[in-house]
Write a structure and sequence with these properties.
By secondary structure, this protein is mainly β. It has 2 domains: 378 residues, Regulator of chromosome condensation 1/beta-lactamase-inhibitor protein II (Methylamine Dehydrogenase, Chain H); 84 residues, no CATH class. Strands 2-1-28-27 form a 4-stranded antiparallel sheet, with no helix packed on it. A 4-stranded antiparallel sheet has the order 3-4-5-6, with no helix packed on it. A 4-stranded antiparallel sheet has the order 7-8-9-10, with no helix packed on it. Helix 2 runs parallel beside helix 5. Helices cover 9% and strands 34% of the residues. It is built from 5 helices and 28 strands. Pfam families: WD40_RLD.
């Protein structure tokens, strides 16, 4: 793991180093011979999930955001989660959500606005607790704003909780804050691919490439051609033709990745975090032209900076606020357009220069940014695998959708022996209009990326064929599950 940026609270996990700012990528000894599954960056703390599902945290712990009372300068295991196989994390300003492999959510840290979803009266929770109101719902993604939280379920339901000062929960004007997860009913029936949260704004991305945003919009971070806050989800029409496949958010800005590997940014630009060679705010999505000609496959937003990864060169680019070294350029200067992060980067399957030390060269696996810190999970050139590609969603983080492989799995069980989890999977898929709509999008046609309504793009021929396969007489249990 390489890390750079603000180290004043120990959030880089480098131990007791003298510097408060790390200006260029530095190896973290703690992660030698360890594989990292996910990283969550809060304002002053960081959470690491290893491949074995264990969780380590470091940084500021004034509000219980580390989930333990151990050393703050180097990563320490969150023992309270020892029995859990954690697969994903997300951090707010001072709170953390962790998702396990069963779809259950754990929360800890600051709870001033109900952002932990625990319905408690304590100001902060120092030991991870299960959000019991979500216990019967299989969650696949979590996202934290500064003081609010979002979750996406397998059934394509979006839940929100926490502060609603700017409408970031999407529940309307009347709700000031929400102490337990609440379903956003206005989004029912839509097949979602991702949830994302900024400082006080929120987004959902559909399987068809449509984007809905809500919350704070003072700098145009919702991309809706104005600066008015939104209290309910609004469709971002200007990106409908761009085939958006991934979204990330900073404090007051937003970045979107297209299927072709292009990057659009909008919102606050005062530090250059939009990458348009200016410090202007943008109320409409604008393409980062200096990245054109390169195919970007990963993007990440910090508080007021943005990172992008280009696999053809193996390089990471960054732009925006640099005062805490978070750009990794070797200086504290702000950058208004993409600038290469320092390092001996090599593309996957790239050729190493002769007579070099392999330890000094890095093949990026995945980039992470948040707060004023950045990280890169890497491998050495002699045993590197392909980097992650955010344009290819992880199936384990997606909603239920019917496809040929899933149908064959269902039909592979003999009559009378369908396991409970398979029956629940079938029931969940066919009782969710969002999942059904997502199952039968006309994915062979790029036009499906431009659908923004509930039922357009549905391939009903495929729907009928698969439905009739499922209700064959020799599978009575499945037949009972799907009679809707």
């Amino acid at each position: 793991m390489l890390c750079w940026g603000n180290a004043s609270f120990g959030q880089l996990g480098l131990g007791g180093i003298d510097e408060e700012i790390v200006l260029e990528p530095r190896k973290s000894d703690f992660f030698i011979n360890k594989k990292v599954r996910d990283v969550g960056c809060g304002l002053r703390h960081t959470v690491f999930v290893l491949d074995d599902g264990t969780v380590y945290t470091c940084g500021c712990n004034d509000l219980g955001q580390l989930g333990h009372e151990k050393s703050r300068k180097k990563p320490e295991q969150v023992v309270a989660l020892d029995a859990q196989n954690i697969v994903a994390v997300s951090c707010g300003e001072a709170h953390t959500l962790a998702l396990n492999d069963k779809g259950q959510v754990y929360a800890w840290g600051l709870d001033s606005d109900g952002q932990l979803g625990l319905l408690g009266s304590e100001e902060c929770i120092r030991v991870p607790r299960n959000i019991k109101s979500l216990a019967d719902i299989q969650i696949v993604q979590v996202a934290c704003g500064y003081y609010h939280s979002l979750a996406l379920s397998k059934a394509s339901e979006v839940f929100c909780w926490g502060q609603n000062k700017y409408g970031q929960l999407g529940l309307g004007l009347d709700c000031k804050k929400q102490a337990s997860p609440k379903l956003i009913k206005s989004l029912l029936g839509i097949p979602f691919m991702q949830v994302a949260a900024g400082g006080a704004h929120s987004f959902v991305l559909t399987l068809s490439g449509a984007i809905f945003g809500w919350g704070r919009n003072k700098f145009g971070q919702l991309g809706l051609n104005d600066e008015n806050d939104r209290y309910v989800p609004n469709l971002l029409k200007s990106l409908r033709s761009q085939k958006i496949v991934y979204i990330c958010c900073g404090e007051d800005h937003t970045a979107a990745l297209t299927k072709e590997g292009g990057v659009f940014t909008f919102g606050a630009g005062g530090y250059g975090q939009l990458g348009h060679n200016s410090t202007s705010h943008e109320i409409n999505p604008r393409k980062v032209f200096e990245l054109m000609g390169s195919i970007v496959t990963q993007i990440a937003c910090g508080r007021q900076h943005t990172s992008a990864f280009v696999p053809s060169s193996g390089r990471i680019y960054s732009f925006g606020l640099g005062g805490n070294g978070q750009l990794g350029t070797g200086s504290t200067s702000n950058r208004k357009s993409p600038f290469t992060v320092k390092g001996n980067w090599l593309p996957y399957n790239g050729q190493c220069p002769p007579d070099i030390d392999y330890e000094d060269y890095f093949c990026v696996k995945r980039i992470f940014s948040g707060g004023d810190q950045s990280f890169s999970h890497y491998s050495s050139p002699q045993n590197c695998g392909p980097p992650d590609d955010f344009r290819c969603p992880d199936p384990s983080k997606q909603i239920w959708t019917v496809n040929e492989a899933l149908v064959q799995k269902w039909l592979s069980y003999p009559s009378g022996r369908v396991p409970v989890e398979i029956a629940n999977e079938i029931d969940g898929t066919f009782s969710s209009s969002g999942c059904l709509n997502g199952s039968f999008l006309a994915v062979s046609n790029d036009d499906h990326y431009r659908t923004g309504t509930r039922f357009s793009g549905v391939d009903m021929t495929a729907a009928r064929l698969l439905f009739h396969k499922l209700i064959q007489p020799d599978h009575p249990q499945i037949s009972q599950q799907v009679c809707f």
